[in-house]
Design goal:
2 domains; globular; alpha+beta; binds glutathione; 7 helices; single chain; Glutathione S-transferase Yfyf (Class Pi), Chain A, domain 2; Glutaredoxin
Length: 203
C-alpha cells in the first residue's frame, strides 16, 4: 500500500528520476503519483515545496522532501542504503558526478523549454538557447566518449537515462544519436534492463 505521495507530472524528467529510482529499489508500490500543475497558483505543490518544483515527495507524516537528488538519497536509505548511491567513496562520487551531468542536461533542457513557454517568439533569446544547447552538446560528447556502466543501475545511470529520454521527448527532431553512437547503444541497452523504464516513459 502507498504511504508516500510523489508530486510530479508524467512528463517531468526529474520526476521520472524519482519514479525510476523507486522502481529500481522495489519501492514503487509505496509511492502514489499525484499529478502536479506548476502553473496553477492554487496547486498544493507550492505549499509542499516553496520552490513550486517537481518532484516533491510527501511522506506519511505530511513532511516533504525535495529535490530529486534528496529523494534519491531518501529512497536509497529506505531500501537499506548503498543500493543506487554507493557508500564506498570512489564509487559514490563517480555515481554522484554522473548524476550531476545527467541533471545538468536536464537543467539546460528545462531552461530551454521554459524560455519557449514563458517568452513569445520575438522575445526569445537565441543566444540564451544556444548557450544552454552548448551545455547539452558537450555533456553528450563526454558521455559518448565514456558511456556509463553496462551493469550497474545507480543514481548516475538513472539521471543520464532521464536526460536522454527528455531529449527524445522534447527535442525529438534533434538527432543526438547520429554523432554519439556509443551513448545511443548504451541507452538502448539500459532501456531494456532498467526496471520501470517503459512504465515511466514521458506521456
Ligand atoms: N534540481 C531539481 C530540478 C527540478 C525541476 O527543475 N523540475 C521542473 C520540472 S521537470 C520544474 O518543476 N519546473 C518548474 C519551475 O522551475 O518552476 C531536481 O533535481 O528535482
Amino acid at each position: 500500500m502507498a504511504d508516500m505521495i510523489l508530486r510530479t507530472t508524467l512528463t517531468s524528467p526529474f520526476g521520472r528520476k524519482s519514479r525510476l529510482a523507486a522502481a529500481v529499489l522495489g519501492l514503487a508500490e509505496r509511492i502514489e503519483v499525484v499529478v502536479a500543475d506548476m502553473f496553477d497558483d492554487n496547486d498544493s505543490l507550492r505549499l509542499q515545496n516553496p520552490l513550486g518544483k517537481m518532484p516533491t515527495l510527501v511522506l506519511g507524516d505530511g513532511s516533504t522532501l525535495y529535490d530529486s537528488r534528496v529523494i534519491a538519497e531518501y529512497l536509497d536509505h529506505l531500501a537499506g542504503g548503498g543500493r543506487i548511491i554507493p557508500a564506498e567513496p570512489v564509487a559514490r562520487f563517480a555515481a554522484l558526478k554522473l548524476q550531476a551531468i545527467g541533471d545538468g542536461i536536464l537543467d539546460a533542457g528545462v531552461l530551454r523549454r521554459l524560455e519557449a513557454l514563458f517568452r513569445e517568439a520575438p522575445l526569445r533569446s537565441e543566444r540564451w538557447l544556444a548557450y544552454q544547447s552548448g551545455k547539452i552538446g558537450r555533456a553528450l560528447d563526454e558521455l559518448n566518449a565514456a558511456p556509463p556502466s553496462e551493469s550497474d543501475i545507480l543514481v548516475g545511470e538513472i539521471a543520464v537515462a532521464c536526460g536522454l529520454g527528455f531529449l527524445d521527448f522534447r527535442l525529438g527532431g534533434d538527432n543526438w544519436r547520429a554523432s554519439r553512437p556509443r551513448l545511443a547503444d548504451w541507452f538502448e541497452r539500459f532501456a531494456g534492463r532498467c526496471p520501470g523504464f517503459a512504465e515511466t516513459l514521458p506521456r
